[in-house]
Amino acid sequence: MTADERIALLLAARLLESGVVLEAPELGDRGGHVNVALTLTDRLRRVSTGPDDAREIIASLRAAAREPVEA
């Protein structure tokens, strides 16, 4: 996992946790991990069946972000 991937997972977890709904900015290729996080958050929100499910998803994202970072 790269540092950008880790940041994307943590950002997605935080966005899901906060309940904030953001429109994807027009960042193009410059968006990198932010684009990934926003897309992931949107998709996970659509499949979440409720608060308990959302908490499990958030915990899973944070657990995945604890994987070692590649140099």
Salient structural properties:
mainly alpha; flat
Give the terminus-to-terminus CA distance.
9 Å
Per DSSP, the total helix count is 3
Which range does the strand content fall in?
under 5%
Secondary-structure element string: HHH
Summarize the main sheet.
none
Low-confidence stretches: none
- Shape from CA axes? flat
Descriptive account of the structure:
- The protein starts with a helix and ends in a 6-residue tail after the last helix.
- The protein has 71 residues and is mainly alpha-helical.
- The mean pLDDT is 86.
- It has 3 helices and no strands.
Write the layout of secondary structure elements.
Blueprint: H1 3-18, H2 32-47, H3 51-65
Helix pairs in contact: 1-2, 1-3
Summarize the structure.
The chain has 71 residues and is mainly alpha-helical. The protein has helices at 3-18, 32-47, 51-65.
